[in-house]
Amino acid sequence: MAVFLVLICLISFASPIQATPDGDPVDITVLSNTKTNSIELDAQGAVLMALENGDILFSKDVNKRLYPASTTKILTGLLALEYGDLDEIVTVGNEANLCARDSSRAGLDLHEKISLRNLLYGLMLPSGNDAAYVIAVHIGRKVKEDSSLSIDEALEVFVALMNRRSRELGAAHSNFVNPDGYHHDNHYTTAHDLALITREAMTYDTFREIIGTQMFTIPDWSSAHDPTVEEKEIRYWRNTNALIQPNSKYYYQHAIGGKTGYTSNAMHCLVAMAHRDGIELLTVVLSNTTKDGKWIDSANLLDYGFNNFVRYQPFTKGEQVDILHITGNSTTDWVRVLMDESPTHFIRKDQISKISHEIQWEPEVIQNSEDGRNIISLPAPVSKYQKVGTITFRLGETILDRIDLITSKSVEIKEIRSPDFSAKLRDGISIPYLTLWYDLNLWQKIALGTGLFVLIIFILYLRAITLRRKRRRYVYRRR
Description:
The chain is of the alpha+beta class. The chain has helices at residues 2-14, 73-83, 116-124, 129-144, 151-168, 191-201, 205-211, 221-224, 291-308, 436-439, 442-478; strands at residues 45-50, 56-60, 89-91, 113-115, 215-219, 234-238, 255-263, 267-276, 279-288, 309-312, 320-327, 334-339, 345-348, 355-361, 366-370, 373-379, 387-395, 398-407, 422-424, 430-432.
């Protein structure tokens, strides 16, 4: 009987608990023309995303429902940054004891007074479940503006906030029931949803600073406030992300942070970010069967992204694309055509030559051809930032972007009018002046003015000579 029981236990532990029903397909869905055999992963769900614009560079079962484990704390930290004050002091209550005994802890003391900033270090570095519950209760009470709210009520408010915020970010395939990610059958997410949440958290400098910290030290509150303790204890919160630890065999020199997670149901999970050559990439790997798998998968994904993709930005926002001629104004006859937005995409290096762009002008824009050149014009009035066209970028047959083209300034209607000057003769007859002067260009006007000036000098010279001769004749007659 004993041998039989041992065999039953061995068989049970040999089959890992699955996060999704058996029979779920594990198809590799790859975007950006990536070859399906270009990279192999141990993770059940994975995504490689460009942090700058959210472009998906690689994905595997990106929308498959999986358990996130402690990577949930990224959302908890995001809400703390959005609704809390980093310098406010939080008092640790009985909610710190809600986390399971077998879960990771930051070692917070009951009644400890700690800043929200330091709580975030305890949340993200040692993955403290106690810190997660303290943050959740604090934010729940703050959102409701009721410090007397019970622990359960405050947690209910916070969990509702988690689900609402995740959906606002586009994470439509997720559901959260606790702030720490401890296993619950109804607590799940997807690789893509988790990437969207992390991308938003990465917009906060404080979040970047915390997840990139290798070790954070903080005095133990109980010993620091106990006069009977001579040697004060120090808490060492070491980042569980091996990719940023130089002494780890999985150290990745371009890594800038991330968050680990593990439960027997979720298996090994990792969210990781890295920066190289001006590009920031984000990876999510969920449900790795081995501890080493999450490090290897993440490093392989990051290498794949950096080695095969390039940042493509053909125009910057406000950059001139063309010149638009304006009719109906005597002083302004053109305006610049500018990009209304700044399109940025991450394209495979071998696909750059396949990118093309085309401009479609608005119906009011007149297109003419002169001497082999295309001339576009628009009648006044023209308003500043008026849409005059659209530029479309394509990668082969795939549309990458459609960006509006706008004018650089406004132009009012101002028609050319000839002035009506007239000269009166002695008998009262009026003769209109010719308008030739107003039809001349600048150099013609200068030449005509110079000629008139020389003519006047010459006439004055002749008059002076005539007067001198008359004066001599008059003197001679007198003599």
